[in-house]
């Protein structure tokens, strides 16, 4: 006995769990609602994927607006700054060729007048001679730096030089041009930004190497950003380069002469919500698909599965009770309604056929019972007639033949009674049948069973076809009759034993033996004085009909007497026995003819 804490056999729980899971999955997959959901899911999946891709591309496009706008702003500022520098260069050319610059006294006045008439982008002017000496200036003094070629560049400004021929050689006009505009120039109705920057936050700074950045808008109050990625290499290419940086978009480009422009744009409310909108769209698609699948499952269960279940219940009730009650099921589809009507007609027709079959079966049972009763009576009548005829014959040989024929007919009558008395055609209680059959043989021959000759029957109940039971009964009849008649002459005592048992591989073994003097010696002491050849011929013929070989052992006892018949034959099903019936009948007829030709 196992203890309460004993463990289950290894693998029992996982295997049972796996089997239950497989059965649950198989049952779920086989369900109509599951299959309909799978079909709708497969059909709607491309649309859902397409909607997701459209939402993703929309998100990508909206999220890229800020970077594209920063790059466009940077290029626009670059173009406007270069236009202003080009105009300032034209202005410097015009100033450099003024005649007033030749007079040192008029030079300063001419530069101040020229600076006053300029648009305000040029901050400082300086006029140098060929040796790099400052002749005159306007605005902040432009410090002498030799020839002016190595003059340091101010932050947010560009130094431009224009040369002109003078009386004492070539002279150079140096101008410091500020790159930048006012708020109105940038964001006004006629500003540089125009519709691109209107209502869209944008800022820009100018920077040169390690100098502090200066705002592009002079009066906007923009504060230069702190840490920024190093974009000088990209800006030096002259093309706008846009990147995302901490929620903003940065774009850089080169204005000229080492001056770079940094443009920063912030995402609009629409752009900031792009990711949230994309997530909400995906959630919406999933929710719509889920709600649709749930609705399909509910309505499929209500409109298809439930009518099918009710129809199945009606069919099961018909199988159990035999009464099919077709009723109108709510929400039943037309196809199922037609199926129910067709099944109703089929069950009614089947019920009529079943009633007809039952009536025919009852009649057939009565007819078969009457036929069996008549066959049994006719066999008994034939046996009685043979017995009466045998009693009227005086010749011992003829009387013995009639007696043998009578015993064979009685054997058939007994077998027929056992086969059909209770309607069982395949199973015989062989022990009681053989006891009655042998008892009849003893009585017919005039021997009292258990007195001089003892009878032993060792047989069990077994299934046997009627086509095998008949030759088996006749073999026993012939063998036992020969033993009782010839094995114990002169009043000798002895024993006749019949053994029938099933062996392996669906076979049976029949042994009929006696411990008498043996058939040849017994026949020699009878009054006929000749050998009965018909009996042994019939035994051989019936053995062939059984599909068995016949082995006759004479002198098998210790004293050298006795006769034993051994037969081992296959137990054939009823169908196989019917297939061999015609051939067996021919063998039986042939054996009878050969036996009859030998004489009694």
From TrEMBL:
| GO molecular function, a single term | ATP binding
State where it is primarily located.
membrane
Q: Where in the cell is it found?
A: Membrane
Highest taxon above the source species? Bacteria
Q: Name one Pfam family in it.
A: HATPase_c
Key words of the record: ATP-binding, Coiled coil, Kinase, Membrane, Nucleotide-binding, Phosphoprotein, Transferase, Transmembrane, Transmembrane helix
User: Does this UniProt record's set of keywords contain Transmembrane helix?
Assistant: yes
Q: Which residues form the HAMP domain?
A: 302-355
EC numbers for this chain: 2.7.13.3
**Transmembrane segments annotated in the record for this chain:** 36-56, 278-300
Look up the record and report any one GO term of the cellular component aspect: membrane
The reaction(s) annotated as catalysed by this protein in its Swiss-Prot or TrEMBL entry are:
ATP + protein L-histidine = ADP + protein N-phospho-L-histidine
- Any one biological process term the GO annotation gives: signal transduction
Residues folding into a coiled coil are 336-370
Q: Where does the record place the Histidine kinase domain?
A: 370-573
Q: Does the keyword Coiled coil apply?
A: yes
Q: What is this protein called?
A: histidine kinase
């Amino acid at each position: 006995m196992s203890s309460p804490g004993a463990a289950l056999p290894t693998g029992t729980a996982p295997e049972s769990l796996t089997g239950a899971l497989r059965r649950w999955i198989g049952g779920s997959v086989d369900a109509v609602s599951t299959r309909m959901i799978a079909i709708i899911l497969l059909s709607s999946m491309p649309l859902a994927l397409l909607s997701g891709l459209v939402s993703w591309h929309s998100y990508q496009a909206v999220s890229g607006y800020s970077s594209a706008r920063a790059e466009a702003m940077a290029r626009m500022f670059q173009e406007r700054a270069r236009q202003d520098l080009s105009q300032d260069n034209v202005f410097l050319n015009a100033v450099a060729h003024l005649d007033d610059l030749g007079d040192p006294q008029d030079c300063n006045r001419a530069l101040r007048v020229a600076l006053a008439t300029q648009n305000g982008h040029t901050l400082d002017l300086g006029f140098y001679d060929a040796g790099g000496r400052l002749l005159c200036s306007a605005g902040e003094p432009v410090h002498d730096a030799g020839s002016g070629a190595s003059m340091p560049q101010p932050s947010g400004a560009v130094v431009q030089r224009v040369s002109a021929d003078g009386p004492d050689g070539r002279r150079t006009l140096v101008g410091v041009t500020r790159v930048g505009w006012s708020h109105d120039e940038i964001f006004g109705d006629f500003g540089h930004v125009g519709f691109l920057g209107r209502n869209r936050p944008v800022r820009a700074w100018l920077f040169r190497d390690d100098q502090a950045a200066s705002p592009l808008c002079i009066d906007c109050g923009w504060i230069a950003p702190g840490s920024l990625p190093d974009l000088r290499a990209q800006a030096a290419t002259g093309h706008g380069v846009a990147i995302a940086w901490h929620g903003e978009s940065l774009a850089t480009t080169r204005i000229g002469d080492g001056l770079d422009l940094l443009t920063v744009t912030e995402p609009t409310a629409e752009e900031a919500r792009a990711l949230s909108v994309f997530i909400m769209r995906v959630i919406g698609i999933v929710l719509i698909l889920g709600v649709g699948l749930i609705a399909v499952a509910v309505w499929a269960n209500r409109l298809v599965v439930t009518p099918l279940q009710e129809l199945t219940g009606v069919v099961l009730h018909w199988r159990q009770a035999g009464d099919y009650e077709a009723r109108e099921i709510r929400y039943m589809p037309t196809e199922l309604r037609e199926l129910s009507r067709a099944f109703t007609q089929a069950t009614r027709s089947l019920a009529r056929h079943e009633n007809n079959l039952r009536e025919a079966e009852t009649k057939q049972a009565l007819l078969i019972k009457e036929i069996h009763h008549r066959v049994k009576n006719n066999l008994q009548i034939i046996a009685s007639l043979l017995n009466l005829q045998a009693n009227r014959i005086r010749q011992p040989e003829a009387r013995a033949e009639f007696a043998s024929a009578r015993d064979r007919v009685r054997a058939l009558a007994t077998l027929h009674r056992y086969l059909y008395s209770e309607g069982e055609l395949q199973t015989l209680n062989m022990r009681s049948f053989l006891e009655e059959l042998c008892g009849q043989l003893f009585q017919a021959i005039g021997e009292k069973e258990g007195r001089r000759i003892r009878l032993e029957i060792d047989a069990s109940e077994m299934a046997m076809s009627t086509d095998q039971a008949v030759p088996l009964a006749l073999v026993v009849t012939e063998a036992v009759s020969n033993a009782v008649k010839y094995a114990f002459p002169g009043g000798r005592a002895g024993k006749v034993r019949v053994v029938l048992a099933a062996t392996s591989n669906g076979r049976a073994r029949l042994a009929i033996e006696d411990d008498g003097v043996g058939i040849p010696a017994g026949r020699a002491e009878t009054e006929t004085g000749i050998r009965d050849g018909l009996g042994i011929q019939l035994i051989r013929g019936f053995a062939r009909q059984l599909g068995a070989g016949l082995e006759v052992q004479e002198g098998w006892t210790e004293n050298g007497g006795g006769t034993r018949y051994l037969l081992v034959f296959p137990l054939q099903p009823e169908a196989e026995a019917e297939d061999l019936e015609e051939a067996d009948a021919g063998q039986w007829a042939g054996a009878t003819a050969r036996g009859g030709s030998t004489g009694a």
